[in-house]
Structure formats: C-alpha cells, structure tokens
Amino acid sequence: MTASPAEGTADAGGQPIDVVKSPNDKKEYRYVVLENGLRVLLIHDPEMRPSSTGEGGKADMEVDAAAAAGDAEAAAKAGSPPPAMPGQKRTRGGAAAGSGRRRSGAGGKAEAGPGEDSGEESSGDLRPDGEDEDDDEGEESGSGSGSGSGSDSGDGEGESSDGEGETGSGSSEREESEGEGEEEEEGGGRRRKKGGGGEGAPVKKAAAAMAVGVGSFSDPEDIPGLSHYLEHMLFMGSGRYPAENDYDDFLTRHGGSANAFTDQEVTNYHFEVAPAHLEGALDRFAQFFIAPLCAEGSMEREVLAVDSEFRQVLQDDHCRMAQIMCHTSRPGHVYNKFSWGNRASLWERPQEAGLDVRSRLLEYYHRHYGADRSCLVVLGGEELGALEALVRRCFGAMPGGKGPRPSFADLPPPFQGRSLVVTPAVKDSHELRLTFPLPPLAAAYGAKADSYLSHLLGHEGPGSLLSALKTRGWATEILAGVDDDGSATNSCCSLFGVDVTLTDAGLAAGPGGCGLAVAGLVFAYVNLLRAEGPQEWVWQEMKAVAEQRWRFLEEGDPMDSVSRLAGSMHHVRPEHTLVSDWLHEAWQPDRVAELLGRMDPAGAGSCFRIDLLTRRFEQVKASALALAAAEGAPARAETEPWFGLEVVVMELPDSLCRSWAEQPPLPELRLPPRNPYLPSDFSLRCDDPDAAASLPPAEPLPPGVHSLLATPPTLLLDKPGLRLWHKLDTTFRTPRAAVHWRLFSPAGHTCARSAACGHLALKLLEERLREDAYLADVAGLHYHTSPEGLAGMEFRVDGFSHRLGTLVQRLASALAGLGRGEGAEGQGEAPSAPGSSLAESFESAREALVRKYRNMNMEVGKHASYSRLFVLCAHSMHCDDILRELEALTPQDIAPFVSLLLSRCHVEAFVAGNVTQAGAVELAEGIVAAMGPGCRMAAGERVRDCCVVVPDAAGAGAAEGKAEGKAANGAAAKAKAAKAAKAAKGAKGAGKKAGKGKAATPAPEEAPGAAAAAPSAPDLGTVVPLLAKNAKEENAAVEVYYQLGPSADPHGRAVLDLLDQILYEPCYDTLRTKQQLGYSVYSGTRLTGGVSGFCVQVVSARYPPAVLDARVDAFLSSMAPRLAAMTPEELATHTSALVAAKMQRDRSLIDEASRLWEHISSQRYDFLSRELEVAALESVTAADVAALFSAHLLPPSAGGSGGRRKLAVHVAPHGPLKEERAAGGKSADGAQEADGKEAAGKEADGKGKGKGKGKGGEKATAAMEVDGGAPGAGEGAEAVERPALEEPAGLAALRATLPVHPLHLGTPPPPLLPS
C-alpha cells in the first residue's frame, strides 16, 4: 500500500515509531507514550490556525482578552452535555473495513444549530427515507446505500464521504440553513456538529478524544449501568472547574461541542472547538480524568437523564433486539447484563439494598480509570512540539499504575447451541439476523478475513445472495459483517452478523412461518463459499479498492476522526493507527477457511443464533411454538425484565440444521464477477492548461466581504429544458467529481397519487440498476435518488471521475426507459438480471416503500417535526395520503406516469470536481437527451412550494376554529366515502383500499378534529395537538416554532443566528440539565421556503406537551433580562464563535459540491451567503439581538410583541406518562422522587387506547422555576392538554386557513456559453 511515514518519534521504550499516513494527507503526526502510561497521538494540521483565513487571506474575527472574561460567568452556571450510547457499524459488502453505516444506538436525529449552511427545509423533506431507524442514519437510495468498499473520509475515520456513511435521502428534514451546525443524537444524546460543509460537519476545528479502556462489561452485578452513569457524571464538574456546565458552556462559547459514549470495553469522550481555544478546552477535558466531582446533588439529578435516555429507546427496535441478545446470552456471561442503566438499576434498587451509589461510582472510577488504560488523540493547529507540551501539562497528573485493562479473552462465546429468538417489533417490519460467534478479530486487522466474508455475503451484484432472495420475493436488503461496536468486537469474541430485511413472503417462507427459508438460503451461500474455497483474486480486488481510497483519502469530521482513532489505538499497532481500516497486509486463506468452518450449520459444536424481529409477533410466536412441538425441540416464552418484552426462544432442530448443511448447490448462487468499474485514470483536469484557461475571471468581492470560503460555480448554459452550473476543482485536487441534477415536471407532485407514483418509480429505477450499479459502488462510484416534493426528483452521482459519465447516462436512460415501459414483462428490452423486470420487482419494491410510509413518525420527536413542516409547506402531501395511494398502485400505473412526467420537464444540473467545461456540457446534454423531446420547459415556469404565514396571537384562535370545522366536515366526507367503498366488495385497487381505511376513520361525531377547543391565550399561539402514532409510546413531545419572516437580508439572518448561538446552551442547560424535562432537548433556527424561524423541541417521559410548551416560553421569558444586560464582551465572545463556525471550509470536494448544490436547488443562488452574514455580524449590536428576541420570541405576557407568530405541535402518548404530575403535584424536592410507584395504576403497560383526548383532558397546572426544580402549582390553566386533531385532515384543514408568504428566489447570472 502506498503510504507516507509520519514523523518518527519514540515510544515508551525509546524506539522510533513511524505512523503510516496517506499520500494525500498534509497533516503531521506524532505518537507519544507519557510517563504515566497514557498513549497519545498528536496531529498537527498546517491548514488550521488559531485565526483561520479565507481565500483572500484576511483573518477571521478573533476573541480579545476582554471577551474571554465572559468565561468567568460560565463557571457560575450548571449543566452538562449528554452522552450517547455506542452506535453499531457493520460492513455492507466488505472490500475494506470501515465502510458500513453507523446505526444509532437509540435513534439518532440530526437538527440544526447556529451557523449551518446546508440547505432549507421544504416539502421534499417529508419523504419517509431516513424516518426508519432500520436504515441506520437514513437510507441512501441506489447504489450509495452502502457497498463496503472502504471509506474515503480520512484521519483513520471509517465512515465514508462517498456514500456509505451519508445521510443521503435519509434526513427526515434537511433543517437549516441559517443555523451553524447540526445536532445529532446518538443514543438520544445531544451532539452539535458545527459548520457549513454539505452533508457532514466541516473541517478545521481542533478536536480531542480520550478512549478509556473500560466499559459496560465491567459493570458490577448489583448496579447495572454504572459505567454509563459514570460517563454522564464526568461532565458534571471537576475540582478545578466545579460548575456543572463549565465544560459545555466553554465549548459553546468558542464554536465547539462535545459528546461521549459507553461501549462494552471502552468509554469514549470527545470534543471539538475553535483552534484558538484548544488549550482551555483540553485543560477542562483533562480534569474529567484527574479530579471529577460527581457531586451528590448532580448525581440525583443526572440519574433522571440516564433514565430518560433509557425510556427513549424502549420503542426502538434495534435497541430492543440488542437487549434481547444480552438477555438470552449464556447465564453469568458479561454479555448477560443491562448496560443502559435506568433509575431502578442505578438508584432505587441500590438504595433499597443499602448501597451508597456515589461511593461505589467513585470506587469504580478509581479502580478502572487510569492513564495506562487510556488512549488520547489531539488534533490542533499548533506544531507537534507545542501540542506535546500542552498534553504533558494537562494530562501529566492523570493517575496511572492501574495495570492492563480488563480482558475477557478467557470467556467462552456469549451464545451456545443453535437457537431461534423471536422479538416483537414496534415498526411494521420483519428483520432476520443470523449471528455467528467468531474468535476475536480486532487485532487481525491486516488480514481482513472477516471483511472478505462480509464482501461476499453482503454483495448485491449478479449471482449474489441478495439477488437470489429478491428473485424469490423474500427480501429487500442485506447487511453482513462484524459491527465495530463493543458488542460485536471485543476481547471475548467477534460476532459476524447477516441481517436480512424480509418481505411478508420472506417471513412466511419455510417451516413455521419464521423466515427460516431465508436462513436456509444464507447457508446455501455459505456452502458455496466453502465449496469454492478462499479466492485470492477477490481479496486482491478488495485490496486494490482500499489502496485507491487510501491514496486519495479525504478529510473526515474532526471529532468523529479523533474519537475513532482513540478507540482503535487499543488494538492497533502504533504505526498502523491511521491505516488499519484500509490495510491488507497478507492474504490468509487458512483464516478465511477457519471462519467459514464456524458457519457450518451442522458441524461439530456449531453455534449460531437466528433473531427474528417482527411486527407479527403473536402470529409468529404461535407458529414457532407449534413447530417446536412438532419437532420435539425445546422452546419457551419468557419476558425480558428491563424492556418488559415477551420473547420466544426455540432450539433449532438437528434435522433442520442438517438439511441446511446438506442442501444441493443452487445454480443462481455464484461468486461475483470481476469488477469492470475499477478506475484507472487518476489524472487531474485542473492541470490541463486548456481547462485552466477556461476558468472564468474572478468576480469582485461584495462590500464588507474580505475573503471567499470557496469560489462560486459558473452558470454555463441556460436554455429551455436545461440550466447547467459547473465548477472545476482546483482546491482539493482529487480525481473525484459530483453531478447533481433535479428534474422538475408539473405532473410530478399534483396530488398524493402522483407523489406515490414518483417515489415508487425511483425505487423501481434503483432496482433496475441494482446489480450493475452495485459493482460501481464497490469501486467508489455512487448514486442517489430522492423525491423532493413540489421541487421534483433529485439525482446525484459522485465518486472517482474516470467512469462517472457512464453511470450518469445509465441512470438517466433507465428513468426514461420506465416511461417507455422497458423492463416490464413482455415489453422493451429483456431484463438485465433475474428480478429486474418491472413486473417481478414491483411488489417487493412497493411493499418496502409502503412499509417505510407506515413506519413514518413512530418516534414522537420526529412526529412533531414532520407535522410542523407539513403545516408550514403550503402544497405538501401528507405521508398517510401517499401511503393510501401507494397501496392501490399497480405495475401498469408506472409507465404512463413517467411518460407524462417527461412530456414536459426541466433539468437544472451542477457538475463539480474533476470535469472540464466541455465534459460538464456533454454530461448535462446527455441527461436532457435521455429525458426526450419533452425536456424543453423554461426554467422560469417551475413552481416552488411556499411557506404559510403563522398567525399572530390575535389570529391563532380564529385559525384553529376554522380548522376544526373543516376537519369535522372532512372526516364526515371521508367516512361517507369509506362506507360507499366498503359496499363495493368486488371492487379492485383503490376501492378495496378505501374500504380498508374505514375502521381507522372516526365517525363524524367522534372525529377528534371536530371537538371544540378553548380559545388560545396570547402566549399559546397556534397549538396543534396530536396523538402518538405508536399506542405503546411512553414519551411526549413538543416542537415550538416561532416564525420571523422572509430570509433575504444577511443582517437579519446574522442577528437570528447570533441569537441562536446565545440561547443554545442556556436552553439545554435549563430545560434538560436543571429541570430534567427530558433527555432530548434542542433549539435552532429553521429556514422553510425562504422564511426564517426558530424552533425548540423537547421529548419527555415525565411531563405532558402543554407543560413542556409552557416551560419553553418560561425559559424565553427568563432570557429577556439576560439579553438586556449582555455586555459588549459577552456579545463579542458569541459573535466570534459564530464567525468561526461560519468560516469553516468544506472538508472535501463532495461536501463542497453538496453545499453549493443547496444554493442551486433552492433557486436562491446566494453562494456568498455565509461571507455576507459574517460581514454583517461586524455591525450587529446587543440591542439588535434583544429587539429581534422581543419582537419574535418573547411571550406577550412577559412584554413581548403581540405580533409573535408561534406554532406549537404537541404529541401526547395514548396512556398516562410514567411520572406525570397533576395540579398540586410534587414540590421541587419531589423532582428527585420520580418513582414507579406513583405511576403504577396509571400506566396500563402502555396498552391504553386513548381516543381523541390523548391525556384525557387532564389539567397539568405544573410549574417549575426557570433555574430548576420540579413542577408545582401556579402554571395556570394554560397548560391544558387539548383534544387531538385527526391526521392528516386536521393538519390540512389548519393549513388551508393560512395565507402564504411570497417566494423570494434568486436571479442567476448570464450564462457563460451561448444557448
């Protein structure tokens, strides 16, 4: 592998260590072992300076010494950032390690924060892709959904910027544009990712991570979850910095963020910050590991946060399966633990047993946390010598001498025998997982033996296991490999998993209707691999792909990178710290054969388990127990105590396992073909003199702008049917390119049926391209499709530029082919592969898409966000309406729709990267030609969605009253139509579906939307009361949106962003840390159809939405005097942090292209928006911020404007909240007594079927002091739960009463080339 050695430095034994780095890596590295045993990787980034500069060379704004005085105030405040439970990551395919997607441990969610510039939200963000947690961080449509070909993002970080790790179509809302980062919750925790770089976080932030070599495997038996609890507590102050939120407040003030997660053998803490403030952040960080306080009062409060975190995952399918795997593991094994922790395990039961939890926690800390058990990574702009001196000053006092970290290598595998375990799913899904315990493989990273198996078992090309499953209509997706989380990769074993997403037919296939025929097909492919023997050419091809990506490695997110590197340092040789994920040292066929032997279903001592997660639990339970009885196999039903889940455990019969082992070879299963898409031309077009000469002259900078973050793209063509933008890369100098285009047609989003046809057409398109495009994906060339609502359909192809044009043309031609009926049975071209004809693939594609729509909004926070956005987007279609139409579609509906779509359309395209002007024109003209003669529509004829005007306090009640009347009328009409449809029993298609829908629609007199609501008080604004979609949901949510107005003025955007920067940390500290409303709290700006707004969301297992809403307004009221008293120094601190965030450059070509595309696809064309906002910030005063706050956010009762426009979405669970406080409830002291006893008798195990009123109309007259405390008397009658609106009729009725804001679109410049 081509590599460059980093600086040779000495380890503890005095031997020099050369850290191998990518030839494309400009950073410098030093590996050091301190005297106390702490292993440290130092990273100097020469492009990172305490004062970053743009292309023009002028330094960004600095924080002066006076501004730093604001830090003294931070020490007086309380709070801490939340941690996150470990994510899971698995290679899909597996040509190189580290290429899979990360699965959030408890349902991750991305939200906006100050300064982000990644695109506005629109009706296109109401699609289902990414709402499903099964899709990890969101589904990446097309080949980009993950191949396992290795990561392209750097610093040793294993998530790809080339497709595998992207959110892609998976963001439920690309919320932003005015905010500075996104907030990502891993395990329900908060993590702010700063900046404006496309789909990922920007580069040029300093960062650090500490991976302590102990985790949940070491939890004491009598206090489950103690490791996780300790992780929380280390954020809550130290001897040197005693204030609870000093660390988090310091980071927020200086453009930073922090997070942590507890794994089985490692606890990982990490942060990022503006480079100039690395020293202050690192000193605070070091105190976690030297002198944490773990104060008694903080512990009592923070245990509620741990408990809230646990409650948020009770309805998360993957967390449920993970806990069931622990519960059904070998008794007494370290796997057989409850690692989340909750109030019962960490507080109530220990106290009942007479345990001093604080003493035990500190005892655990002092026994396990030591320098010689820890690895530290520090990334900064200082020279290596200065970084080393800084680390020695900060961490030299970290205690050592603890000895080797705990090892569990002597333990047997966590599972024994061969079993089937069936678990109930929350979502409408069926997922089958086969798990094979293998020897520990983390230290054998150079062999990539497990990656070899992952590559073949997870392949999606011709002859693959997935193709065979799809041909039979049994599955829609496969994921194979060893996750890199601690559950699957540890000192005890490695767990190799094969995850298959089943169709209904796949669930029913095989004995017992348990998906066992799918397991048989998996073993058929394993048998093939054993019969063929290890193939060196496959491994060599994987090595070639990995070497190409390593050679042209791009930068990764700084905080993700240091976190990953710190964790890997525990098992990777120092010289391989950076390269381990890509390193293929030696082909070891014997090791591959050994692993295959352990997958023999009937071999001596064979051990594997099959987990089935299904919504049809009761049906499958009965059939599984019947199968066990018929076969004489032991089986049992039992209940897992922490999640309260009933599961079925059955030993697999010997006869069944033998049949899998002895089945004859299947002709459709074969090894993949050699990959024709491997690139070979890596020349750079920017080095071509002709290409360089064609670059347009630089435009003069606008007034106040001193430097550019990136050169804007050039408009090459603007003619009927095509608007083409282009930017030749001269910055990143990589042989990659990205092509984005959006297809608009008036026929694309006229009604719910057209929306359903369009989305399904894209899925059929992906299926048609799947096998061939997967090979391209393995070779580093990815594509993505997504429906964008009224704006049309969006397509993207990115990766190595050599063969990019081929995939672009295939994608465009395949869409046009759908309109001609090609691929349909008996028409057009013969299908390229089994299952690729439209008729064969239609049902499975539709079933998968229907399931996604059914699973939308299952989580209350997402439900609230979705409903807010639906109300705001004037022409959006509700997912429930689209679902109804999807269920009625037939294969014959697709071709006419696509033909109509293309009969009149327009393409706007952007070609960026290693492509010349002539090449860009050729690509774009090829797309237009493929669309056909109808692609002649003028750009000005396109229609965009508009944002409604949220009523002010005076108009809110009138709008709600009109909506209720319309909802009642709509419900009556729907009920009448449903009744008529049911009478037509022989009807097909839509008639049948309407009949099925009748039961879900209340009769007119029962329609929730028809119920009367109390007039809105001035502070309430427009309230949208809803019921949780999941009847067993235990959490409530509120999303409160304050609308400002059109976002056309850079000064106004700058003021709003600065207000967001100021409010962000106090909002979290007040509502989450002090008041403990819930684990998930965020705030941030929104840009919706060109209209600015500000949002606060709280998800709570303790309090109803009306109380949460009132608490948000109370917090805002408390901020008024603080804003009025803000000193110039404090304002300068916040301004500097915001400027630093906005001036972050894109970390890669793909990120830059994605960010620029947002400016194009939104039709704003404001490529210099960040630069103009930074210029505007120079003149923003504290009075400007206070005035905006008073006019738009401050409640009228606290002196705010009566013109405040507030929209509050309330999502309530069906049954009572576990710790709901009614009027006259607990005192502040009672906040610490949220015991299960009070909730007993109110809970009904989540099976309550609340109708219309959600919380039964109970008054929650709770109140809390803004600085903390529990609800008490005095909140007033405003905190009353309202009857729930019917969805979607009530939402649509409300929206229909509201006027719309006019659109403010940009004007493109004249094109460079003649039309």
UniProtKB/TrEMBL annotation:
GO biological process, one term: proteolysis
Domain Peptidase M16 middle/third: 550-884
GO cellular component, one term: cytoplasm
Compositional bias per record (Acidic residues), positions renumbered to this chain: 130-140, 154-165, 175-186
UniProt family annotation: Belongs to the peptidase M16 family.
Coenzyme PQQ synthesis protein F-like C-terminal lobe domain boundaries: 1058-1157
Every Peptidase M16 C-terminal domain range: 358-544
Name of the protein this chain belongs to: Uncharacterized protein
